[in-house]
Structures are given as C-alpha cells and as structure tokens.
Amino acid sequence: TTSLRENLRRHAEIEFSGEWEDYEIFAQGQAWKFVPLKSKVDAFSSKTARLRSTARLVGLALPGIIHSPISYHAISKQMPQVKVVVVVCDPLDRLEKEFWYRFMCHSEAVPQDLRPQGEGCESSIEVLLQKPAYWSWAESHLAGPHLEHFLSTLSPNRLFLLHQATLRANPDATYARLAQWLGAKSPFSQNFTPALHNSYKGHRSDLCLNSSLQESLKAMLSSEYEAMERVLERYGKDAVPDELKMRQCRCDRPGELIGP
User: What's the rounded Cα separation, in Å, for the pair 119 and 123?
Assistant: First the structure.
C-alpha cells in the first residue's frame, strides 16, 4: 500500500491527505462509531480543501480499516462518492513481514526504527507453530473474512481490486488504468516509472530456508488463500494470477531474497 500511495501521488492530479497512513477520521476510538465525530470530519474537510487547490483527486491511505467493520460500512453507506482501491498480496508474505517487523531479532543492517520495540525478540519464525500466543496474534490479523464482507458492500463502479502480482508484472499499464479509473483527466508524466517503497530485500526471517515450514504455514492460512481467490474472481479487474493459484510467496522470487 505504501508503493501504491507514493506512485499515485506522483500523478499531477492526485494527492493524499497525509504523508503516511491517515487515521484522522477513523482513528482508534473513532473506528467503533458508525460515522466519525463532526469535529474530525470538519478538520479533515479543511485539510482536503487546501489540497484540492492543487490536486483534483484526494485520497485517504487507510489499510487498517479492513479490520473495522463499522468504519467501512460508513464509507460504503454514508460516503457514496468515495472510490476504494484494494491491493491484496500473498497471505504468507504479509504474515512474515508483520512478524519480522514486530518480533524478529534483526541484524545491524536493519534501521533502528524497523526493529521490534520492547523486551526480547525471536530468532525464528517457526515459533508461530510452537507458541499458541503467536498464532492467536496471527489469526487476529487475517483479512479474508473482513475483505469479503467489505467488498460485498461496494458497487462495482466504486471498487478497483487487484493482486500485487499484477503491479509487479505490468506496473506502468496498471497505474495508468488506475489513474484513469479514479477520474484523472491526464496521463502520468512521460518520465514516470513506478518505484517500490517500504520494501526490504533479503531474508526477513528463516522462512525461505525451510520449505516444510512454508507448507505448514500455507496450510494454516488456507482459508485466507481461498477467500482471496473468491474476491478476485468476483470483484477483481484482472484474472486470478497464477502466483496465487500456485500459492507462491516471495520465497519463490529469488530476486527478492538478494540483499542485506
């Protein structure tokens, strides 16, 4: 989602409400109200009004809303002019990245702000199979059921759903289609080349060194894979990618494993 936001904002007509993810109107506490507080909406409207002086289209980067049904129902029912872009990725990739970010012991090559906070860290992602508390944490971050519910509330003309594999395979064409769908009247500039953001190459954990662990975790994530296939078949702009059908993760993309 970081790459999506940063590449879209390079279009002359597109801007986002915040430099990063913006939880101003759906912040912790606000997420459990059917609509945000009026004071939050007024502040947000003032901010976006200023942005519209230079950009025709203003977006809100809010991936966490997928876990807040009350909030996404508000978008669906109370904000009919809002279009929603959803990018899904391999469930095991996402799980490894979250675990790496929150719990793994990192080498000195990893910036301090990307290392786990608090006491202790784990040397192997295999603890997901060994410590029930970790798998409970993992289950609480699964998006499949929420994703199916959320997308079912949106009309087709308000939803652009795609898999990350499509962005990797055809980045220029995909961003061009997306900008046009959002309502941009002009194309990206001629020197636009999509770039990766918030992407850390190399082995994040020992996952890609352990094929049996990969298979075990994929089996435990089977419902997540199946939910993703269903929503892409029903709502996606493109065919379900082979990468998803074959349950491939970043361990199957050697180029991503070369790095620190």
Answer: 14
Q: DSSP letter for 117, please.
A: P
Residue scoring higher pLDDT (35 or 166) = 166
Residues sharing a CB contact under 8 Å with residue 63, sequence separation 6 or more, in sequence order: 1, 21
- 53 vs 8, which has greater pLDDT? 8
Per the structure block, which two tokens stand in for 71?
A: 């909030």
- Which is nearest to 240 in space by CA: 164, 177, 179, 157? 164
Q: Are 49 and 42 in contact (CB under 8 A)?
A: no
* Confidence class for position 108, pLDDT limits 50, 70, 90: low
**Per-residue model confidence as pLDDT tens digits over 173-204:** 999 999 999 999 999 999 999 998 877 788 88
pTM score of the predicted model: 0.86
Could you give the angle at the alpha carbon of 22 between the alpha carbons of 8 and 34, nearest 5°?
120
Q: Residue-wise over 157-194: b if at least 16 C-beta within 10 A, else e?
A: eebbbbbbbbbbeebeebbbbbbeebebeeebeeebeb
Between 198 and 240, the more confident residue is: 240
DSSP β-bridge partners for residue 159: 84
Q: Which amino acid is at 46?
A: S
Q: Around Cβ 198, how many Cβ atoms within 10 Å?
A: 12
User: Within 13 Å and on the Cβ side, how many CA atoms surround 243?
Assistant: 21
For the chain, the first-to-last Cα distance in angstroms comes to: 23
Residue 172 neighbours by CB under 8 Å, 6+ apart: 192, 193, 194
Contact 60, 22 (CB under 8 A): yes
Residue 162: what are its φ and ψ, rounded to 5°? -150, 160
